[in-house]
Design brief:
Domain Glycosyl hydrolase family 13 catalytic: 14-421
Distance between the termini: 26 Å
Largest sheet: 8 strands, parallel
Number of strands: 22
Structural class: alpha/beta
Low-confidence stretches: none
Bound molecules: 1-O-alpha-D-glucopyranosyl-D-fructose, calcium ion
GO molecular function, one term: alpha-amylase activity
Number of helices: 15
Keywords: Cytoplasm, Glycosidase, Hydrolase
Family: Belongs to the glycosyl hydrolase 13 family.
Shape: globular
Strand content: 15-25%
EC number: 3.2.1.10
Helix content: 25-40%
């Protein structure tokens, strides 16, 4: 069943604070910088802000390695700054959800400092320690998402600890009920401050298969993915339901679980209301379509058919039960206009077309900072201009294996996470108005043409188009709660679908290329009176039942 909920009618805006806006000239974005931009976000029309982590952190993984869950990262400001941001947001009718990173902590967290002291330390079992194999090697053959082994040897106690990500991100032991209670207490501590929910980092990794067995390794690699033993593990639903009962159920909040490796059927189990687990999940299938068997750095061409088949599968699977999140951008993914659109000749048209595709679908749309005015991927010549641990670890590992600098830069240009982490381009002044100091990462040189200031006052800008899409979602129940059915399912160039609710129909046409394909309105609607709902072009003819789409044209009709 699907009841009406505020978070189903909302548009959510993700802020990666480090790169959003620097208020004190140290080159690093901060909380006061966010507060300065709340009117801009209000003007865009979004409802909820998802803040990537702002907790104390050594920033090995830019805040996704937390050393104190109840205090603010020095670079971002103080708890007072955070309270001020929350109040200023709420005063504008904006909600704030926080990033919950509890699959792992930082190795500088007090819990880990204790845990590593001795095998009988009360905090020992807050983390996952194992002796090495007979020959002294790691307890199993799993690799880390950030290269190398998922295990790090610790001299003090002569054992290894598990870290699915960097060695400074030890996995917490969710089998330990005390760890779970610590997490629930911390969640309630933030909820009592008045936040409006959580985005939960790799939350489907927290239940590991007992025994942590070696993964099959047919090619005899040094390390292999152990994901089958920690994705959607045996106790995951038990833990998430317990979290609902112990921390969430008494608050009117929303939750979205980031779930690499989740499929549609599992997603229904996580998000259907009867489960009392999560409201939504971030799935990764559509953003893995351009990855080969070797993972994200194994580049694979993307086809419209692949993308359409996947998005349709998810729309249909969660149409009656559960709820979709709709995204193509975040701080881990390359910029969508560069990846799925055309960031050159048809930059504006394709950005608007992709936005139409997502925002007219069923689910809650997520906008990542800068997407709303078309920020693009970046290409730094020098590997030292890259800051992301995932990229740098991969570069070093592959260079050691003999892969050329040029080949690696090609892969980084297409898939590197720093594509999404260059400073938000506010205007065409120095450093794009992001900072008066030296930015922690270089600004994308195209900021002179692509920036918020130029967009906000231009009625033909991508920003203005996002404003319209958001307004349509706020005004129209068919966009939010309507059914979904694909149209033109074998068309090589056009992604077309329809939404229906209470006799109102929306017909959505998105041309994914620069050709000019002709399409025809379905026979059943040819006599009905069509009005144009939105388009990324000024259209002469909106009456005909047959029409030709311009390059990257998006066109939505409303029939009622
Ligand atoms: O990402 C989870 C995750 O799987 C990512 O590593 C993603 O698959 C990969 O980056 C794609 O290149 C979450 C956070 O969003 C990410 O920023 C963190 O690095 C990671 O967890 C560890 O906390
Ligand atoms: Ca700053």
């Amino acid at each position: 069943s699907q009841t009406k909920q505020w978070w189903k009618e909302s548009v959510i805006y993700q802020i990666y604070p480090r790169s959003f806006n620097d208020s004190n000239g140290d080159g690093i974005g901060d909380l006061k910088g966010i507060t300065e931009k709340l009117d801009y976000l209000k003007q865009l029309g979004i409802d909820v802000i998802w803040l990537s982590p702002v907790y104390k952190s050594p920033n090995d993984d830019n805040g996704y390695d937390i050393s104190d869950y109840k205090d603010i990262m020095d670079e971002f400001g103080t708890m007072e700054d955070w309270e001020e941001l929350l109040e200023a947001a709420h005063n504008r009718g904006l909600k704030i959800i926080m990033d919950l990173v509890v699959n792992h902590s930082s190795d500088e967290h007090a819990w880990f400092a204790e845990s590593r002291k001795s095998k009988d330390n009360p905090y020992r079992d807050y983390y996952i320690w194992r002796p090495g194999k007979e020959d002294g090697s790691e307890p199993n053959n799993w690799d880390s998402a950030f290269s190398g082994s998922a295990w790090e040897y610790d001299e003090t106690t002569g054992e290894y600890y598990l870290h699915l990500f960097s060695k400074k991100q030890p996995d917490l032991n969710w089998e330990n009920p005390t760890v779970r209670q610590e997490v629930y207490d911390m969640m309630r501590w933030w909820l009592d401050k008045g936040i409006d929910g959580f985005r939960m980092d790799v939350i489907n990794f927290i239940s590991k298969v007992p025994g942590l067995p070696d993964a099959p390794n047919p090619e005899g690699k040094k390390y292999v993915s152990g994901s089958q033993y920690f994705m959607n593990g045996p106790r995951i639903h038990e833990f998430l339901h317990e979290m609902h009962e112990e921390a969430l159920k008494d608050y009117d909040v929303m939750t979205v679980g980031e779930m690499p490796g989740v499929g549609p059927d599992e997603a229904v189990n996580y998000t259907k209301e009867e489960s009392e687990e999560l409201n939504m999940v971030f799935q990764f299938e559509h953003v893995d379509l351009d990855s080969g068997p070797g993972g994200k750095w194994d580049l694979r061409p993307l086809s419209l058919k692949d993308l359409r088949d996947n998005l349709v599968k998810w729309q249909k699977a969660l149409e009656q039960d559960g709820w979709n999140s709709l995204y193509m951008n975040n701080h881990d993914q390359p910029r969508m206009v560069s990846r799925f659109g055309n960031d050159g000749k048809f930059h504006k048209e394709s950005a608007k077309m992709l936005a139409t595709l997502l925002h007219m679908m069923k689910g809650t749309p997520y906008i990542y900072q800068g997407e709303e005015f078309g920020m693009t991927n970046v290409q730094f010549e020098d590997i030292n201009d890259y800051k992301d641990i995932e990229t740098l670890n991969m570069y070093r590992e592959k260079r050691d294996e003999g892969v050329s600098h040029e080949e690696l830069m090609k892969r980084i240009y297409v898939k590197g996470r720093d594509n999404a982490r260059t400073p938000v381009q506010w205007d065409d002044s120095k450093n794009a108005g992001f900072t008066t100091g030296k930015p922690w990462i270089q600004v994308n040189p195209n900021y002179k043409e692509i920036n918020a200031a130029a967009a906000v006052n231009d009625e033909n800008s991508i920003f203005s188009y996002y404003q319209k899409l958001i307004e349509l979602r706020h005004q129209n129940e068919t966009v939010v709660y309507g059914s979904f059915d694909i149209m033109l399912n074998d068309n090589e160039e056009v992604f077309a679908y329809k939404r229906e609710l209470n006799g109102e129909t929306l017909l959505v046409y998105c041309n994914f290329y620069e050709d000019s394909p002709q399409v025809e309105i379905p026979a059943e609607y040819q006599q009905a009176n069509k009005e144009l709902f939105i388009s990324n072009y000024e259209l002469e003819d909106t009456e005909s039942n047959k029409f030709t789409l311009k390059p990257y044209e998006a066109r939505v009709y409303r029939i009622r």
